[in-house]
Design a protein that fits this description.
Chain lengths: 254, 250
């Protein structure tokens, strides 16, 4: 590596790390415990963890087959399909929220059908999960598709030639080989779900215990109680660091 | 390293150019006005009128939640004028000695907004307490939510909203999209939304009134000009613009 690269690298690192230090420096430690254990804070944290876990599971269930289709098959229009599936990566989350509203909302594309079935999505915890899954799924698909392409198909071919059926190959050979990719994709999806704000506030609204996740609670608190907002922000940072650390640990074991 | 220098200069130049383009050399003066989001259309009109009467002056408008704007001014934002949607946020800045010459210039009251076809048949504030109604209100932390809460308390109506939004525009959005059966917003929001919503005025609305104060910001570069802008808002021309948008007199 050319030595001069370390200067912009240090600048970049400082740019990313300084704001985190600034948050820590701003925390009101004397009241920290009280601030993060208030009823509203605990409900928001619990709601965030619950919905993010469900969203991550949905991402795995629906995203893994999608990654397989994108990595292991080829058909006309596949490139376009891939771009469309990855769109939420680059779409502003608020736009994603509006899109969900126009699909599943009362006056949306599927609104009448859902209403007829007695399903009310808007303003429910289910809407939070949908918003999170929408923005997080591409992260899982991208990282798993990459892992599938890197792993290649040699072992799959060998297993098949030894008489294993496609499902057995997928379950016993393909998935174990790409497990690190799947784990890191799931962790990214979880982290993205945990931080989801724009799509949630647009599509699900904001009500304590039902739809007000931790980022929404922070956004609300910063209007009136900056200390509480800062304390909760630190909680979110810590949870994110734990998740990333856990994932690294998991990957090195695998 | 030497070949990097022009690159670094390129990176830094635009940053330097972002600096204050104040009265140095050019005759262009920029007056920065921070105003509550509910003042958006009226202040845009007022600013146009101000620019027309002041050659070489550009009015830069920044709209947001009053508490957000107040917080930004406390952190040293370069505002010349501040117009708040409630007295509480202005009082905060007065207490910190950050504003000067506070005067009240408008009032706003609550109104119910429903989708154009009013699917739940809301006709009074009391109707908002009905079970099964999908009601959206502002969170109690923001001025419109505080007003809604006070109103419900005075009328003895128990509200069970499906969502407590962060700003009055978020409430309006949930109503115009048809997701909510009703939302509590300001009279002026119903006026500006036009055909997108149906307004349900209620006789008790004058019991809870939000007062809008305006002031010049201490330490601003253009104190005299800032005062002229505030005078325009409180004067006859400014008052007419506000009145047309549905605001009440101070």
């Amino acid at each position: 590596m050319p030595r001069w690269l370390s200067l912009p690298a240090a600048l970049g690192a400082a740019f990313l790390v300084l704001p985190v230090i600034a948050i820590v420096a701003r925390v009101d430690w004397a009241d920290f415990g009280t601030l993060i254990t208030s009823e509203a804070s605990r409900q928001a944290l619990w709601l965030s963890l619950r919905t993010s876990t469900i969203s991550t599971l949905l991402c795995i269930l629906l995203g893994t087959p999608m990654a397989m289709v994108l990595a292991r098959t080829s058909f006309p229009g596949q490139g376009v399909l891939r771009s469309l599936v990855l769109l939420p990566l680059v779409l502003p989350p608020v736009v994603g929220g509006l899109a969900l509203l126009y699909t599943f909302g009362r006056r949306g594309l599927l609104g009448e059908e859902l209403e007829a079935l007695g399903i009310h999505v808007a303003f429910s915890t289910a809407a939070v999960v949908m918003a999170q899954t929408f923005v997080a799924m591409p992260f899982l698909v991208v990282s798993l598709e990459g892992a599938l392409r890197t792993a290649g198909q040699r072992y799959d071919v060998v297993a098949a030639s030894l008489g294993a059926g496609p499902t057995t190959v997928f379950r016993r050979v393909t998935l174990p080989l790409v497990l690190p990719g799947l784990v890191s994709g799931a962790v990214l999806a979880f982290a993205r779900s945990l931080g989801e704000f724009g799509a949630t506030i647009t599509f699900a609204g904001s009500l304590q215990g039902v739809t007000r996740t931790l980022p929404l609670e922070i956004y609300q608190q910063r209007e009136t109680d900056v200390d509480a907002a800062v304390a909760l922000s630190l909680v979110l940072v810590v949870v994110a660091v734990i998740v990333i650390g856990f994932a690294r640990q998991g990957r090195s074991v695998l | 390293m030497r070949r990097l220098a022009p690159l670094l200069a390129l990176l830094v130049l635009p940053l330097a150019a972002c600096g204050d383009d104040g009265p140095d050399g050019t005759d262009e003066t920029t007056l920065t006005v921070y105003a509550a989001a509910s003042l958006t259309s009226t202040f845009e009109e007022t600013a146009d009128r101000f620019e027309a009467g002041h050659d070489g002056v550009t009015v830069k408008l920044s709209f947001g939640g009053s508490s957000d704007l107040a917080a930004q001014i406390q952190e040293g934002a370069p505002a010349d004028v501040f117009a708040s949607a409630d007295t509480a946020n202005m009082d905060k800045l007065t207490a910190d000695g950050l504003v000067d010459g506070v005067s009240e210039f408008a009032t706003n009251t609550l109104e119910i907004a429903t989708p154009p076809d009013n699917p739940a048949g809301v006709s009074s504030f009391q109707d908002l307490g009905k079970a099964g109604l999908r009601l959206v209100v502002c969170a109690p932390e923001v001025p419109c939510g505080a007003a809604t809460q006070t109103m419900a308390g005075q009328l003895g109506v128990t509200l069970a909203p499906v969502s407590e939004e962060q700003s009055v525009t978020d409430v309006l959005g949930k109503v115009t999209s048809g997701e909510a059966d009703a939302g509590v917003v300001y009279v002026t929001d119903v006026t500006s939304a036009g055909d997108a919503v149906h307004g349900v005025a209620f006789p008790e609305s004058d019991q809870v009134v939000n007062t809008y104060p305006i002031a010049t910001v201490e330490g601003g570069e253009h104190a005299a000009l800032a005062q002229e802008f505030a005078d325009l808002v409180t004067g006859a021309a400014g008052q007419q613009i506000l009145q047309d948008a549905g605001f009440g007199p101070p």
